[in-house]
Specification:
The complex is a heterotrimer of chains A (279), B (635) and C (215). With 279 residues, chain A is an alpha+beta fold. Helix content of chain A is 41%, strand content 21%. Chain B folds into 2 domains: 61 residues, no CATH class; 488 residues, Cytochrome C Oxidase, Chain A (Up-down Bundle). Chain B is globular. Classes of the chains: A alpha+beta (279), B mainly alpha (635), C mainly beta (215).
């Protein structure tokens, strides 16, 4: 039967295309993809992306191979031809298997994504009362860093050391608890290599966890349109060995003393004046 | 034909006589007058402590600006003649459903309030087409600015205004890009109703949209706005009066969308001819119903959201200002409750057009009609439960993220139905790769990548990196430009000749498709990579290392522009110069609109049509088992 | 034909207006190099000149060494890898800082600045701060002391005079980086009337924002 032959062709073609491409995707391309292995959370995102690429590849190739085959095998070059295709109006079996496959895929993806998310927060902002707290953050107190966004600069307040600085410096192999907030409009703190992104919302303490690994240079960018200099709201941070971090923190305490003594009391959110139009 | 004959002999008027009366020119004149009354006569005379201070310090008066826009629109609509009928009715005149329908085929009909659904459709096509090209031009400017990270062609203020105008124009005006021209034109024909349920409201939706478009462009008088199409607060509140133009624009768009949806829904529910049962309804009409439900339920949310933003700016309420008890989250939440259905308002008509056209060009019935309907309605239903995936890293309702992950990924189920229907219809068809069919095939390819990339964005761990980056920008361009715009062109090439009674050049159409398809993928494919490499959206500068990719994207974007010029040339050539009349049924389609003569008579049908039990009566019925296969009948 | 011509004229006028809007980029002023080194002279005013389209907005201006020759330029051209002496004639009154740590100068030579030639200072009280000259990409940020709010001869609109109007002269030195385009801005919520003090002039290049073009 013609139908069986066509179907067999499509399946064979799909296998021929998918098997090597899938292997390439899972073993070569996806593991090397951003954001890289700069932190536990970033590495987790790479794993997650690898799973997604692994599932997306056969689906994509299936549709493309099917489309390509149809256009090649069933093309009618004579547009005025009176010939018509077969009047097939559906097939319960195909619909059943399609629904079963896609539903299984979707449920797996949602379950897998949720488990991964709840394990360590995946570096995303979780609001003031996070539920996805990494196991390590529950033991030793994590290093708290408050990210204060304002138009158009991120500043980092280290409550443990009592200073605020425009330079982001983090110790290696440490659990860090970012508290992201804003003094004016909505920004988004994106520490690319750490795999951290958390919106800075005025009046909100948005917490994100990250477990740093070895020394690293971090590109920090604002990922939410915040006005004129949104595109220029970037800086460079560093993950350094723990001893180096301790020295740096001590130096900053002295260096930034004149500014530090004017800082408002540490708080999870700030509402400096003016706030409304009447000035 | 009789309707045309009646109206043929009217006394000719001079140009100036024709300019008088209620039409677009009077509308513009009264609109400008309304602006002056609103701004100067009323707005400037309202006083108060805050306002006086604000005027003295900022040199602006938002209350006057907003009143100017409101009265300007009212003046424009009065000048167009929208007040005449209500006034006539109050004076005791009899009810009537038509205005300016039987006045011959002159161009004047297109510049005034006309209740012929075919005239409104053409108005929509030209009006929206114009703004589509202006929006596209903005995109060319954006890509010009991004050619270099260190040399600014326009500067950050103008760049952000261009980004905002491009986004607003495309998301606002193009929302009605398919429903406006094509649903208005074809739905009454498909269901055998001769008109829409509310013909005057049909015209009103179009003229509101045009007023909205003009208001958006006036933003540059006030220095533009810096918020992009999402208009987030409190950034919008910091803006100059340019943001008032954004509020006025999107508010009117919301109103137009609500009315358009209501009208289409009422038409399909109540105006179907005898015999046009729900199971005989063409799939395009089902797509329109699904979209109309979204419009009616989602767009009022937009109006309310913007009304509150406007009140924060003018009468100093604090809905979105955290320090005085409001919340910036509130705006994000409300905006996306509208905003996510909105993107499906853009996508669903595309699904419907592909499924409507495929049977014609594969010469087969639609495969899985009920599945197709379930897919359309399923997407519409689910789209109301996913909006917080736009706020995955915002810290809002973080505990609900697994739910939104599931609901978002579930949308791929009904979308998958559509893909299965499309694939089933292609299977063993006799595929004619005409220009409309090519655009449908383009949709399958583009929307596949749009949908798959959406899975990455719906997965929270993956979204942490891609959120707010060029990756998400590439994703929604694949679904909206690759989805909506490609099917828009499919519809233009498919129904356009019949609507405009001209024949398009097929060779130019094919050149248009292939250049657009290649340039589109070459533009938006690399944007996925740029997003992965850490480039956020809406930035005026970027790391030097990304310049190569950005330049590639910009040059590809110019190729999209050139491809659109091919289309424009094709349209101008066939409508202005060659003017070769279209055939009645160039595609051998079996749907009702193609059984009518071209041009379609003013009152559509001589007598009401009868309907086939299968809306897609194509194909050869399979022979009984054991019978010989008819020669060439089955592939 | 008349309609076509009229439409063409209207379209051309709209196109021209949009073109002018898009091409409206503030002018640039170069640093002065003399035997004393490279110097940049700026002034800040509570409101731009009366002839300016936004004559109620605060603004930076480029001036000469004696505080005259006012030009509404906000792109400043500086030589690369050079010490630049910046002098800012400050005519505006204070409006406070939203983020207090910016009351300390950063990124200048010695981390200090001088007001009216007095002893170098590291920081000033937030309440006395009128503007900040900051280049975040370079880690440069200097608080600018405001003139007393009750000064009798306070300047209203540009141009102002260092002899006739109340003025605070702030000076500092910083080293320019390699070639490139850097943006500068003010961090004080000085856009009176706007929410957070950050609208209008704070979000428009040519008033409280601009570029450093290092060549």
């Amino acid at each position: 039967m013609a139908q069986t032959r066509h179907f067999r062709n499509v399946v064979m073609l799909w296998l021929i295309v998918t098997v090597p491409f899938e292997a390439l995707m899972i073993f070569v391309l996806a593991p090397g993809m951003p954001p890289g292995n700069g932190s536990v959370q970033a590495a987790g995102q790479v794993t997650d992306n690898t799973v997604l690429f692994g599932l997306a590849t056969p689906v994509t190739t299936a549709v493309l191979v099917f489309l390509g085959y149809c256009l090649y095998a069933f093309r009618e070059r004579d547009h005025s031809s009176a010939l018509e295709g077969p009047a097939i109006r559906g097939d319960a079996g195909v619909q059943f298997w399609w629904l079963l496959t896609t539903t299984t895929l979707v449920l797996f993806l949602a379950a897998y994504g949720s488990i991964r998310l709840l394990q360590d927060g995946s570096g995303g902002g979780q609001g003031p009362n996070p539920i996805a707290v990494p196991a390590m953050a529950k033991g030793d107190a994590p290093l708290q860093v408050q990210v204060v966004a304002q138009q158009w600069q991120f500043d980092y307040r280290y409550p443990k050391y009592g200073f605020e600085t425009p330079d982001l410096m983090l110790p290696a192999n440490t659990m860090v608890e970012f508290h992201v907030t804003s003094l004016d409009v909505i920004h988004s703190f994106w520490a690319y290599q750490l795999g951290v992104k958390a919106d800075a919302n005025p009046g909100v303490d948005n917490i994100a966890y990250v477990h740093t690994l070895g020394p690293l240079t971090i590109n920090v960018r604002c990922a939410e349109l915040c006005g004129l200099w949104h595109g220029y709201m970037f800086d460079t941070g560093h993950v350094v060995p723990q001893a180096e971090f301790a020295t740096w923190a001590q130096q900053q305490q002295t260096l930034l003393a004149p500014g530090s003594k004017r800082l408002p009391k540490y708080s999870r959110t700030y509402f400096p004046s003016p706030v409304r139009r009447s000035g | 034909m009789s309707a045309i004959a009646i109206s043929a002999s009217r006394p000719t008027k001079s140009f100036w006589q024709r300019l008088g009366g209620f039409n677009m020119f009077t509308g513009i004149a009264l609109g400008i007058a309304g602006w002056f009354i609103g701004y100067y006569a009323i707005g400037e005379n309202i006083t108060g402590h805050t306002l006086t201070y604000y005027k003295a310090q900022a040199g602006e008066n938002d209350i006057a600006v907003c009143l100017g826009y409101v009265l300007g629109v009212v003046g424009f609509l009065v000048g167009m003649g929208f007040a005449n009928y209500p006034v006539r009715r109050m004076l005791g005149h009899p009810p009537s459903l038509t205005e300016h329908e039987s006045e011959g085929e002159g161009a004047a009909r297109y510049f005034r309030l006309c209740t012929d659904h075919k005239v409104v459709a053409v108005q929509y096509l030209i009006g929206i087409g114009t703004f589509f090209f202006v929006g596209g031009l903005n995109a060319m400017f954006i890509r010009t600015e991004l050619l270099s990270p260190n040399t600014h062609v326009f500067g950050p203020n103008q760049y952000l205004t261009l980004v905002g105008m491009h986004g607003s124009m495309m998301m606002g005006m193009m929302t009605s890009g398919i429903l406006g021209p094509f649903a208005n034109w074809v739905v009454p024909l498909m269901i055998g109703s001769r008109r829409m349920a509310f013909p005057r409201i049909e015209a009103l939706t179009f003229w509101l949209l045009m007023a909205a478009g003009v208001i958006l462009v006036t933003t540059i008088f006030w220095g533009g706005f810096q918020t992009g199409w999402t208009g987030y607060q409190p950034l919008g509140d910091e803006g100059t009066a340019g943001y008032d133009a954004y509020i006025g624009f999107f508010g009117l768009v919301g109103l137009s969308m609500t009315l358009l949806g209501l009208n289409l829904m009422a038409t399909i529910i109540t105006m179907r001819a005898p015999g046009m049962t729900w199971s005989r309804l063409p799939i395009f009409c089902w797509g329109v119903v699904a979209t109309a439900i979204l419009m009616v339920l989602a767009a009022p949310m937009l109006i309310a959201t913007l009304l509150m933003a406007g009140m924060d700016r003018t009468v100093q309420t604090g809905f979105y200002i955290a320090a005085i008890g409001g919340s910036a989250y509130l705006f994000q939440n409300l905006f996306w409750v509208f905003g996510h259905p909105e993107v499906y308002i853009l996508a669903l008509p595309g699904f419907a057009i592909v499924m409507e056209l495929l049977p014609v060009f594969t010469r087969k019935p639609l495969w899985g009609y009920r599945l197709a309907v379930a897919g359309l309605l399923g997407v519409a239903f689910l789209s109301f439960f996913v909006w917080q995936h736009h706020l995955f890293v915002s810290g809002i309702d973080a505990d609900l993220r697994p739910f939104y992950m599931l609901s978002t990924e579930m949308i791929s189920l009904p979308t998958g139905f559509t893909f299965l229907v499309v694939m089933g219809t292609l299977w063993r068809g006799r595929i004619r790769l005409t220009v409309p069919m090519l655009f449908c095939v383009g949709w399958i390819f583009n929307f596949l990548f749009g949908g798959i990339s959406g899975v990455f964005l719906s997965d929270v761990p993956s979204d942490v990196t891609t959120h707010g980056s060029f990756f998400s920008m590439a994703h929604f361009h694949y679904t909206i430009m690759g989805g909506l715009v490609f099917t828009f062109f499919a519809a233009v090439y498919y129904w356009g000749p019949k609507m405009l009674n001209v024949k398009f050049d097929e060779r130019l159409g094919k050149i248009h498709f292939w250049t657009l398809f290649v340039a589109f993928n070459s533009t938006f494919g690399p944007l996925f990579a740029l997003g992965f490499l850490g480039m956020p959206r809406r930035v005026v500068t970027y790391p030097l290392g990304l310049q190569g990719l950005n330049d590639w994207v910009s040059i590809s974007a110019y190729c999209i522009g050139l491809s659109m010029l091919v289309f424009l040339y094709n349209v101008v050539k066939s409508t202005v110069f060659t003017r070769e009349p279209a055939e009645d049924n160039p595609w051998q389609a079996k749907s009702i609109e193609f059984s009518l003569p071209t041009p379609v008579p003013v009152h559509d049908f001589e007598r009401l049509p009868t309907f086939d039990p299968d809306p897609y009566p194509y194909g050869v019925e399979p022979a009984p088992i054991g019978a010989p296969v008819p020669a060439g009948g089955v592939a | 034909m008349g309609v076509a011509t009229a439409t063409a004229i209207v379209c051309a006028a709209i196109g021209l207006y949009i073109g002018l809007y898009l091409a409206n980029v503030p002018g640039s002023a170069a640093a002065v190099t003399s035997s004393q080194g490279t110097s940049l002279y700026l002034a800040t005013v509570p409101a731009a000149a009366l002839s300016d389209p936004h004559n109620t907005w605060v603004s930076y201006y480029a001036v000469n060494s004696s505080g005259g020759d006012w030009r509404h330029d906000t792109t400043y051209v500086l030589p690369a890898h050079t010490l630049v002496h910046v002098t800012i004639f400050q005519y505006d009154s204070p409006s406070g800082i939203r983020n207090q740590f910016l009351s300390q100068a950063q990124g200048t030579t010695g981390g200090t600045f001088q007001v009216n030639g007095a002893a170098p200072e590291q920081a000033i009280a937030s309440a006395n701060t009128s503007h900040i000259f900051a280049v975040p990409q370079l880690g440069l940020s200097v608080p600018l002391q405001g003139v007393s709010g009750t000064a009798k001869n306070a300047c209203a609109n540009a141009p102002c005079s260092p002899t006739a109007n109340a003025v605070e002269k702030v000076t500092f030195t910083f080293r320019t980086p390699g070639k490139g385009l850097y943006r500068w801005q003010c961090f004080v919520p000085c856009a009176a009337g706007y929410i957070d003090g950050f609208g209008g002039p704070m979000q428009t290049v040519g008033y409280m924002d601009g570029f450093l073009k290092v060549v």
